[in-house]
Amino acid sequence: MLALEGLVSAALYLMSALVLGSLATAALVLPPGETPLRQRLLSLAAMFTAGFLLIAAAMLVVQGAKLSGGAMPSLDILGRYLMKTQSGNVWLWRELYGALLLALLVSFQKTGLSERAGRWMVLAAMPLAASRSLMSHAAAAREYPLAAIACDGIHLIVAALWAGGLPLLCWALSRGSRLATPPGWTGNLVARFSRLAFWSVALLVATGIYQSWIQLGSWSALLETAYGRILLLKLALFLMMLGFGALNRVFTLPDLIAAPHPAPFPRDAFQRIGAEAALAVVVFVVTGFLTILPPGAHSGHQFAAARRPGALQPADGAAIKILSPREGETFRSDEVPITFRLTAGRRGEHAHAYVDGELMGMFESESGTLTGIAPGHHRLELRVVAEDHQTELDASDAVHFVVK
Amino acid sequence: MSFKSLIAGSAIVLASALAPALLRAHAYPMVVVPADGAVLRDGPREIRIQFTEGIELEFSRIDVKNAAGEKMSVGNLRRIADDTVAVAVKALGPGAYRIEWQVLSVDTHVTDGVLRFTVSGGK
Q: What is the pTM of this model?
């Protein structure tokens, strides 16, 4: 099931990237006036959008199978998933949006796509590529989930523009070499793509670093978790792609610009750009598997639930101070808001909250609410805990409070 | 390096990196009350689990069972926070209990697992 889910996930990534990549190539990369190629790219975009919708449907069946213990899901399961869960709602709305986009693309096939309309279609396809963020690890980020989702969405869009555009650039170069294109056409095409790729890669790196930081949680997770190892593989492939990209920018582009016209498209230049495009496809497959693995930041929880505290470990500079409740404070509901100031020291990372010696909550930010507290006198103790969620440090603070 | 060897190499690395993951479940209870393995003087009124991610109530469940396999939890799963759920339990006498949980997280992963605790009844 894991392998199937990974493959379907990868196919979905690839298809959404090709939708945006083909539209971006048609509207932003092709030099003005290339109507036949632009119309053909529009047809490809429509085909990729239809493919996206079909693969998303397959993804729904896989999700249903996960909810049915591996069996073929019933309509009831699929209906409940779509109507009553956040990720199901996202799937439903995305499918509707994709169908609308497909209808627009089909209508433009009949009427023709102006350059201005093409740019609007690029914008319209961006939410399709970014929507995956709403049901990704970013959506489950514990801190600043909106920032994580926005960052992931931008990451997906720029990845689609660059990596999704590369196979279409190859296609356009191949097609263009057979058409009566004006002098400098090939160089102009590659130069326009190169500009788009440059800014896409810059954003890709920035958002990728942020995503890796929040999903990995620690340097050790890079080697010790499956998520970290796949991320390293993706990074290695990305660097190879970047190498080919730099090679193409420094050598291939000037060669193409200087090439006499008309002349057959240089085979070695086509191979270099093709190599970058093929690597992009491999990166999408690897990313598909990344999405189904638990983020490295969660690896500490994988084998054991929270435990009773054992012997406290040396504080190593960690400290904690409860700011509220104040000593003796009274509350009139079973919800007790708490705020505190945590000094992490060398090993501290978050806090465990004990009420009358019983573990009642974990706080990664310096405020939160304890719920379900019974009426009576209670003792609240906060302890600083290491990143592994199990090592409690000799750094604690306690207050007494009353629930009436 | 040819592309065939590049893709084959990537597939091998992908497979070897994934191999341990295939053996693991996505099990992320972060805070469990009562804690896994706890020995309690009195039975708890409810079981509460805080997970590492937000939970979809629709496909999530927590069942508390006694040593005979009889279900001791009652009512529906209650959401306390996005990532925290609780279920009420009947009055529990001395004995060993299992907490069987399965959840659907907001990033579409289904995870499950078993936790245990014991009520000593003051003995």
A: 0.72
